[in-house]
# Entry
Amino acid sequence: MTTVKSETKEFQAEVKQLLDIVIHSLYTEKEIFLRELISNSADALEKMRHEQLTAEDIFDKDAPLQISISFDEEAKTLTITDSGIGMTRDEMERNLGTIAHSGSKKFFTELAENARKDVNLIGQFGVGFYAAFMVANKVTVQSRSAQPDAEGCEWISEGAGNYTLSQCDGLHRGTKIILELSEDNHEFASEFEIKRIIKQYSNFVSFPINIGGEAVNTVDALWAKSKSDIKDEDYTEFYKFISNAMDEPLTHLHFAADAPLAIKSLLFIPKDNFETLGFGRMDPGVSLYCRKVLIEQDSPNILPEWLRFVKGIVDSEDLPLNISRQSLQDNALVAKLSKIITSRLLKHLGKLATKDPETYATIWKTFGIFLKEGATSDYMHRDAIAKLLRFESSKSEPGQQIPLAEYVERMGEEQKEIYYINGPSRKAIESGPYLEAFKKNDIEVIYTMEPIDDFVFSHMGEFDGKKLVSADRADIKLPESDEKEDSQPEDKLDSAVADTLIKWMKDSLGDKVKEVIASNRLVGSPAIIVNPDSMFTSSMERIMSATNQDHQASVKNLEINISHPLIKGLADMRTRDADFAKAVAEQIYDNALIQAGLMVEPRNMVDRSYEILARALK
Ligand code: ADP
# Structure
């Protein structure tokens, strides 16, 4: 073997930083280096398998697609060889000297923030090729690209600031990685240990991993096997393998169909939601295969974006093997595939909710936010998603979340609409004024306690043919319960006095309110803010002012309770001391805004309330 044209190059700054973390901070789970290198080899073999279907001219065309591992227990080296697509000299420089891959770059930023907090999370991402330096003090990579006229090349580094690249002749197609194990990692130069690690992390790699000429792994594609031949542990192991996870999935769906498309699919719902754990937006986690050949890893085309937390594999033999990534995007077959798989998954979740409500409750708690995202963005599956939503309600136990269908089942015959009200907590909602009329009439109200919920309901518009209506809407007409008829006549203001008071209040509050109205929904509270425009529930208004400082709240109605002593007192005070009555009217309005969770200018409000208190103490 001749080695000429050698040059030494500096690593890109990010690589130096990454290597620094890899070498100095990652002490646990060092064994994952092997998973990283094997999965790079498997990727290169997948690319090769794909290339063989399309390209004519390939170097070493007949070399079998496989990975081989050998060691020298004396010299303490470990060698991983694959017959994959290989790398040219330029590719080696780009791939093993920079962080070009967007996935790695994203990983790197996340790693910097999170690795020091919890090193175990590394396992979820993988540090890629550079993981080799977790165990080796010198790494040699020899590669020969499948391109017929490429030259072989050797890359060597000790993980410090630089690496050398040299021409290297006489190589077979593919890549060979030689690790010179550092002193405290000599254990990895053992056949027993390496077999154990492969079994643990790389068992389902779809090419044989040979040690001493024998395959160590299960090369079968699990998704293509029949369910009866698969044990629960196999599913879990496979899940861990495809998602680089340590945990167990919450549920899996394994199904095969022949019509309208031939599909074999195996999907998993993981245990953790990494988006809420502070990592960035998740990438899709389902890969597309055709007859066990990988078409697109982590494809954004199979499941809708809001299902990006799902991991798994979809294999359809109806797809053309040589389909390009671009054409996957707007391929009618892929769209059809997506629709079928999404529907199946939603159906599976629906069944799970009945069969195993506890697991479904965990899924809802962890991934409910994604379903809500789906309900606002995925018109095609909206109805199916709506059935999976869960909320607390005025008739659920505290902490217990019910499906909308349960609400509908409980609705009285005269009730035509589904009511909901947003608030920060059950307690806050139940002590506010909005529930009063509903309680009085024995009408259930859904509690929407997340800011996104009102958007979800306004996007859905209805459920099971019943309109979803926010309980702070101005135009609500509640079906009255029978008890109402028997209740004692209320001690209301005389209607002429009430009319004058209302007119006066509107004049006093001016443009701050759209209308002042005598309420027929209040029982114990003097006043309430309601929304004349159904587009702007108070909760949506809150989100808009939180996201846009210049947001001008829409003008609301103030309903007053003309049976309430405070309002009655106000009617009287107005004729005696108009200035003080005006201060009280303004205070009532501000208090109602606070109960609606809306912004109040605090200084004026506090000054005014002191004035009122001072007067009360006179
Ligand atoms: P990632 O796998 O996330 O892209 P890595 O740092 O592990 O990041 O690898 C960088 C790139 O180097 C890969 O994308 C691939 O192009 C190339 N590479 C690594 N190992 C091999 C291999 N065994 N055969 C061919 N190319 C490889």
Remarks:
- The longest strand covers residues 136-144.
- The pocket of adenosine-5'-diphosphate is lined by residues 40-41, 44, 82, 84-87, 95-96, 101, 103-104, 128-130, 175 (CB under 6 Å).
